[in-house]
Amino acid sequence: MTYELAIGDRTYSSWSLRGWLLFAAFDLPVNVRAARMYSDEFKTLLMDFQPSRLVPAARLDGTVVWDTLAIAEELAQRHPDAGLWPSNPRARAMARAMSAEMHSGFADLRTDCTMNLRRHYPSFAPSDAVLANCARITDLWASARSEFGADGPWLFGKYSIADVFYAPAATRFATYDLPTDEIGSAYIDAHLNEPNFRRWRAMGLAENYVQPGYDIDLPEGEWTGPAPLSAQAVDDGSDVENTHCPYSGDPVTHFFKIEGRVFGTCNAFCRDKTVADPAAWDQFMAIYKG
């Protein structure tokens, strides 16, 4: 089994987030290849995943699949024991319908509130069309949670493809402070606290790509997800506590400090993704708490 996934910017590409979660959330091994959107590198990456013209695109044992819903269904069929769809037939039917509606709908929310995991705009004023999208999403979340969500914080209790498809919507509610109800707020919090999402966002912050046109001229608030441990990159590794990178096992070359303690990684990206949200990384926390 050999899987590859092409993605764009982690901070802004909602479709890439969906594609990546389809693998990460269900422990399906994949080699991820990322490139900054709108760059020559991005065009080169897509050339290697023809006939796809957009991300995400997956190569599954040599076959390219280039649509998130198609990737989801193909993975569910290949891995029937991974739990990608709910096992209950009625829940599974509703999950499919909700995923399909998100896949093809909510154009006003997508257009006016692009995914931006770097920002929080508490004074954003949504249009009537965006408010209508928010109301519909809130109703869908409440319906699924009330009927099928007793076994966990997700739409159908356990995490499923439906949650993958609504993850970017949850981030939009958080970024733009969009209205929802108590059930919706709890569901959004579940996404912002979910370990795979936290790692995705941390990697986006580590990439430090700031794409023109995604930020808006409004006052900013603090990110509404869990507050990370305070960490900072440093040059001096003389007091480093670990000699090998927690991710690769290679010798440490880049350093960061938390509460006066110095730790190391094998490259700048590993350092910066850890600095962005140290508690999101089990490998690092094993060293930190050890």
Span between N and C termini? Answer: 35 Å
Helix content: 40-55%
CATH topology of the largest domain: Glutathione S-transferase Yfyf (Class Pi), Chain A, domain 2
The Rg value, from CA coordinates, equals 19 Å
Q: What is the C-level CATH assignment of the largest domain?
A: Mainly Alpha
Secondary structure class reads: alpha+beta
Task: Describe the largest sheet.
Answer: 4 strands, mixed
β-strand amount: 5-15%
How many domain modules?
A: 3
Residue windows where pLDDT falls under 50 for at least 5 positions: none
DSSP, total strands: 7
Helix/strand order: EHEHEEHHHHHHHEEEHH
Largest beta sheet: strand ordering: 2-1-3-4
The CATH architecture classification of the largest domain is Up-down Bundle
Shape: globular
Number of helices: 11
Characteristics of this structure?
Glutaredoxin, Glutathione S-transferase Yfyf (Class Pi), Chain A, domain 2, 3-stranded antiparallel beta sheet, alpha+beta, 290 residues, 7 strands, 3 domains, 4-stranded mixed beta sheet
Explain this structure to me?
This protein has 290 residues and is of the alpha+beta class. It has three domains: 3-78, Glutaredoxin; 89-198, Glutathione S-transferase Yfyf (Class Pi), Chain A, domain 2, CATH 1.20.1050; 232-289, no CATH class. It is 45% helix and 10% strand. The chain is built from eleven helices and seven strands. It has helices at 14-24, 40-47, 68-78, 89-104, 107-112, 128-148, 161-176, 182-193, 195-207, 268-276, 282-289, and strands spanning 3-7, 31-34, 57-60, 63-65, 232-234, 254-258, 261-265. The strands form two sheets. A four-stranded mixed beta sheet has the order 2-1-3-4, sandwiched between helices. It has a three-stranded antiparallel beta sheet with strand order 5-6-7. A hairpin with a 2-residue loop joins strand 6 (254-258) and strand 7 (261-265). Helix 4 (89-104) crosses helix 7 (161-176) and helix 7 (161-176) packs across helix 8. The protein is globular. The model has no long low-confidence stretch (mean pLDDT 97).
